[in-house]
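ok so for the tutorial part 2 we go from a plain amino acid sequence to predicted structure tokens. step 1 is just haveing the sequence, like this:
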Amino acid sequence: MGVTSGYYGYGQLRNPTSMLYGTRNYPASYHPPAWELETSQGVSGAIHDFFYDTGKYSYLADSWGDNTEPSIVYSTTDTTERYYGYSTVFYKGHVWSFGGPCDEPGCTLSHVGLQNDDGTQIIKDYKIDNEVIEVMATNSKSAGTHDFIFMWACGLSNSTYAAEFHEDHSSGIMACWMHLDPLSLNTDAYNGDGYHPNPDYSDHVFLCFEWLSIYYRAPATDPTYNYGHWAYYFYDYLLNHGYTVRAALDKASELTHDGDNFGDCPLDNGYLAYNPLTRNDEQNKMRIYGDMSVRLPR
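step 2 — the prediction. this is what the tokens look like for a chain of 298 residues:
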């Protein structure tokens, strides 16, 4: 498969979009570091600018804060699925688990959602799923267009929340937004899961955390940097330098972790993070599904 305009795109250019979301809800009970909120806003704005500067994203919005609301996320999902051929999504915030079925008749799945701007409403996985399925049916599409998703949030890449996929009704942010079975992808894409090729050339990437995400203001191995810097550099090297996902993971890690690549830094090896439910520090890591050879449109 050839590289066209800096990314793998099923051999042809697709009209790309990028959406960025994020909550401003960081209560003291979550133990956020100082300046976590301000850093979250700043990094979101910087990532938006990286996308904007490519000149390739005709539909692009930094919806961090006020516009991270259920109705806006659902309507934007409809628009990007309906009128565009490739979509990326970034969200930073918190996950809400329903712990059981949704209000769809006959549902037996366990659903999850994302917190809205002020933490009072849930952006529901199955509502996103409904938007994707409706557009696919209307447009007679065999696949969705949300192919690159980064959730800087808790738990969405573990086997419980990553999802249960069905063509007509799924659970989990990954299965619902990407409209695919997570098990069809390499489930530990950086290291290889032993069941899929590495890279798997699926042209899909889902990045998240197995359990507790790490705060942006947490210090990296080099304490002059933090994980906000890491996120900044990851998108910088994807969009300004044309790196593959794997190479951008390594470069962002090397710059912030005393030269260690992603496989040798705490994001992959594990770190401790505070769990507000158990009130303990617990071991966590990032997990990535899909294709490490992907390059974003640029």
